[in-house]
Amino acid sequence: MTEGYLLDTNILIYFTEGNLKLIDFLAKLKQETFFASVISHFEFLDGHKTSKQLNEMEKAIEGFIFLDLRREITKAAAELDLKTKKKLKLKDLLIAATARVENLTIVTADKDFKKVEGVETLLFKL
After folding, report:
1. What is the pTM of this model?
2. What does the pLDDT look like over 58-91, one tens digit per residue?
3. Which residue segments constitute the domains of the chain, with CATH numbers given?
4. CA 73 to each of CA 32, 64, 116, 124: distance values in angstroms, whole numbers, following the listed order
């Protein structure tokens, strides 16, 4: 099991935009390595119109460690879906399940993650 922080998609976006408040927030966590789900990787890259844009965005996040989905995570997502009474989107369930299985705290600007029992969340406010 890993310990540390799992960055939600919105945090990746703010980071690559150079949001100084976020950069200061992350620096205070005193963490050398930050993780993200492959789901966040997809969400971050999705919608870019050209392969040049896609490659530029990929380079902007190359320092993060992206955690792959595996059976244990998808099972945890299904369990969380039942516990939250289907109040989260599938992408968010998979991100939350990744945090739960890997023993990571989600760093997010999305209050919806607070609905997930058993997953620690650190809320970033713009």
Report:
1. 0.92
2. 999 998 999 999 999 999 999 999 998 878 999 9
3. 4-123 (3.40.50.1010)
4. 24, 19, 15, 24
